[in-house]
Prior knowledge:
This protein has helices spanning 16-28, 44-54, 63-87, 98-108, 113-124, 140-148, 160-176, 190-199, and strands at residues 5-9, 34-38, 91-95, 131-136, 181-185. It is built from eight helices and five strands. It is globular. The chain is α/β, with parallel strands linked by helices. Belongs to the thymidylate kinase family.
Amino acid sequence: MRGSFITLEGGEGVGKSTQARALAEALRALGLEVVTTREPGGSEGAEMIRALLLGGPEERWTAEAEALLFAAARADHVAKTIRPALERGAWVLCDRFLDSSLAYQGGAGGLGTDRVRAINLFGLGGTLPDRTLVLALSDGAERARARDNDAPDRIGGRPADYHDAVAAAFRGLAGEEPERIRCIDAHGAPEAVTERLMTALADLLPAQQITPG
Ligand SMILES: Nc1ncnc2c1ncn2[C@@H]1O[C@H](COP(=O)(O)OP(=O)(O)O)[C@@H](O)[C@H]1O
Ligand SMILES: [Mg+2]
């Protein structure tokens, strides 16, 4: 049986990577095989493209070239890492995926979500998330600044209005696909956030065996 494909989304510093680790532990405690991965990256070739995308000056890429590089990295990541894991029955937890491209390059970057979706679907071979958890936090930028010692990567360093547009785009995507995309309040202790995420996955989890007392 194919595993479930779960993606964690949201802006900078909202807790995606922290929650990817915690959620993997919680799912493993239920006896599931879990593969954690991240974007851009997650396969050998995609990690090379990650360095090209996140390093260097803002003007290194045009908006179109940047969107195509994300899509190219994603095509390799899906083919080499994600689809093989799902096919052997593992759950895949991915820190950022397609919706980040839609929100950043499509929404905030002005390319349009439909055009960015189209260039991505070309490379995905039909592999799409079963559930997408968008973490929503008012002070993610402050957490990201503290974590990065004020040295953000090429995309994190964009102006505040860009990141506000990213957050708005994620909300818009969630409104369009409420069955797949769930917005999760990311305020509070990490353990409380993990519980909210598990609740948003409850319908995908295998039925628990109840041992008669
Ligand atoms: N619930 C939380 N409360 C306080 N700090 C947190 C919480 N979750 C994550 N952090 C911290 O905030 C920073 C950003 O979290 P991170 O998981 O790296 O975010 P993202 O991957 O979304 O950019 C990190 O320094 C992390 O340790
Ligand atoms: Mg992260």
